[in-house]
Structure formats: C-alpha cells, structure tokens
Known about the structure:
single chain, alpha+beta, Glutaredoxin, Glutathione S-transferase Yfyf (Class Pi), Chain A, domain 2, four-stranded mixed sheet
Amino acid sequence: MPPTITAFERxxxxxxxxARDMRVRWAFEEVGQPYNVRLLSFKAMKEPGHLTLHPFxxxxxxxxxxxxxxxxxxxxxxxxxxxxxxLPDNANARARTIAWMFAALATVEPPIVERGMATLLERDxxxxxxxxxxLDNQVRVRLGELSRRFGDADWLDRAFSAADLMxxxxxxxxxxxxxxxxxxxxxxxxxxxxxRPAYKRAFAAQLAVFTAASxx
Length: 216
C-alpha cells in the first residue's frame, strides 16, 4: 500500500500551495512514488485520532505500515532516504544537503513566517507599518546571505536535492511581497523550482483539493 499523508480539507492559502503538505507531495513526485491523501477539517486536526499521529494537531502526517511521522522535513527526509533522486550518493554532499534542509527551516523560514503572520494578524494595528519595516529588513538579511551564497549557481549544492525542495517552498511564501524581486538570482532559483515537472504535478494535486472544496 502507498503511504498516506494528511492535508487540509480547506486550505487557508486559497490553493497557492503554501501549506506544508505541498513539500511532501513534491517529494513524492520527484521520486516517482504514489501516495494517498487523507483530508482533514480544522476540527478533526485537534481531535484525539489525529493527535495520536501529530501531537501538535497540524499537517502533514505520514503513515506507512507501522511507521507514523510528523513534521514535513522529517517526512521529506524519509522519502529521500528510501527513494533515489533527492539525496546525493556522495557522503559529503549528502551531509551538506541535510545541513541545508535544517537551514531552510531553522534559519530562513522563521523571519518569513513571522512576517507572514504580522501581515495577517497585525495589519490594523497602529504599529503595523513600523513593525513590517523591521520584519522586511530581517527577511532581506537572509535573502542577501542566500544571494551571495548562490552567485550564479542553479542549486544549493550542484544538483537539485531535498534541500532545494525545502528552501524553494520556504521562499515561495515571499512571492507576493516583492522582496524576492530585489535578489534576482534568488528569484530565479525559486522560478527554477516551480518550473520542475514534479513541482507542477504536486501543485496541481493540491489545487484540485482547494477547487473541489470551493465548489462543494
């Protein structure tokens, strides 16, 4: 039986592919492996049945045989370890890929998510403009560091890997902000990720869920 992952029944991102199940869908598509999806309502995510799979009541989760995982990076790593295409064979390159996966989530994503939450929850506050300027600058620091690291390279470490999958998905949260446009090589990097056939298949799969929910 193919693994089963969980995803939002009605995603808040309106089909933009920003929910974290998109990373897992993309990974499956890159390695050419089938998977099943169980859709959850926000209510069901906090019920005991799902909490046994994900102690924080979020998505995605991964079930295969007697193995259950949560956290998107752990699931992507599981897929990459067991199917060729997302981790290099060379030991040093593999270690660097894992390091970049950590960097995507621990170093690059936090200021981006903080900025996103501020735009959602603090827009009507008197301090919003000043706070957004601070958050934008924090994001620019990370984008500048990435830009210098990339130079004219296509991917983080020669060939496309799970690290690029994670990093591109993190950076996609900035598409509507205009901040990516200030760093042409980083913007081009994100565009290369979106242009991959596996990404397009994964995006279409999650968009179909949103479309179905919107018409039901």
